[in-house]
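Onboarding guide, step 5: your first structure request.
Type a short instruction followed by the sequence, for example:

Predict the 3D structure of this protein.
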Amino acid sequence: MNTKAIKILIIEDEIALRKSLKKLIQLRGYQVDEAADFTSAVNQIRSHNYDIYLLDLKLPDGHGLQLLKKYPGKMQARTIIMTAHATIPSAVDAIKSGAYYYLEKPLEEELLFIQIEKIVEIAQLKQKNLSFKNELISQHSSDEIIYKSQKMAEVVSMAREFAKTDDTVLLQGNTGVGKEIIAKFIHKNSKRKEKEFLPINCSSIPEQLFESELFGFKKGAFTGASENYSGRFLQADKGTLFLDEIGEIPMHLQAKLLRVLEDGVIYQLGKKQPQKVDARLIAATNKNLWEEVHADLFRKDLYFRLTESMITIPPLKERKDDIMPLVWHFISVFNDLFDKKINRIKKEAESYLMEYPWEGNVRELKNAIKSIFLLKSSDAISLNDILMSLHKDEKNFGETFVTLQEYELKYIKKVLEATNYNVKKTARILEISRARLYRKLKLLDINLEKEFDSVTEAETETENENP
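The system replies with C-alpha cells like these:
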C-alpha cells in the first residue's frame, strides 16, 4: 500500500485531539489536512479530493452528518465518524447517511487504523476490479470461452484451426475443464454452424440401448419399437454430434462407430440397407484412452482414428491466469440471473481463489460462485463467502450439525490456513484483537505465542472477555 498517495482530512474542533491524530496518522505515512469546524471543512472539501475523512459529529457551527449529506459523492463510504456521545440511533443514522464506520472517543488506535486500511483497500479493489473488468472486454474471449492464460490461448487456436475442417476431433481433459464449451466453439466456427449441435453423454446411456440410441431403429425391430427412431447420428446430419465420455462406449459398438467415421454410413436396427449420414463427430474423454487400449477396453484402430486431431485441455490449477477472468464472468452471469449487484472481491478472497486447487476445475469454480449468490446480499465477495461456498465437502458441515463454538473454531482455523498463519491478517479478517485470537488458538491447541509479542498486557486486560 502506498500510504503517501492517500490523503486524509480530519474534521475535529478539539484542537488537542486534532493535532495528536494528525501526528499519529502522519507517522504512518499518510498525507493529512485538518479542519476545525463545519465552514473550514466545506472549504477544504470543495478545493481538494480526499481519500478518507475523520469526522466529528458535533462541530461548533454545524453537525457532522449535515456535511456528509451535503457531499455524498465525495464522502460516502470514505468517512469514519468520531464522537464522544455514542448512541445506537446516532450510529444507525451515520451508517444510513453513508459513513463507513463509527468510532467512540477516546479512539482505539489499532481499530482506527484497521478501518483506515480497509477503506483504502476497498477503494483500491474497486479500481482494480473496474480495470480488470474493462481488461476482460478486450481480453481473449471467444463466445463462452473465457481465458487469459497462454495455455488456453493455444487450445483456442487449435480449436479454431480444426473448425476449418470436417475432421473428427478428440478433446481430452479432466472432468469440468470445459470440453463441451470447446466442442461448441469448434461447431460455431465451422461451416456447419447453422445446423444442429447435438451433445450426448455416453456415460448416461445404458449399454443395451447404445446401438439404438446412436444409430436408430425401424418400427418393429424389437419388442417395444412401436415407431421408427432416427438415432443421434441422423438427428445431427449436416451438423455436429458431440459424444462426451466416449470411453464408455461398449467394445462391440466401437467397430460400428469406426465404420461411420470411415464410410459415412450407419446401419439402423431392423434395416438391411446402410444409410448415408453427414454428421461431424467431436468426442471427449477424461480417461487415458491409450491405457484403455492396452487394457483391451478400447479399440486401437478407433483410438488412432480419433487422435488424428486432438486437443488436450489443461486443468484449471495449471492455468491460474484464467481463474479471475472466469470468476468475473460467472459474477456477471449470476448478477443477471439472481438480480444482484456484486461488483467487487476482497483481497483475501481473491488470494484464496487463486491458491485453491480446484480439483473440479471450471465446473467447481462456477458452482462455488453460484452458491455465494444464493445467500449474498452485499456487493462484495469476502473470504468467508468463499469458505462457506466450499464447505459442502467438509466433514463437519452439511447434514452433520456442530456446536456454535466448534463451528467458530473451525472457521478460525480455516482463516489461519488461508492466510498462511499470518496472525495479524487473521485477526483483521475476523475483526477481533490479536489477544482475543490468542485465546481462541489455545482452544485449538495451536501455539503461536511468538506471533503475539506485540500484544500488550493492557490490551489483554481490557479485551472483552465474551467469546
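Each response can be followed by summary notes, for example: The domain at 394-467 is CATH 1.10.10 (Arc Repressor Mutant, subunit A).
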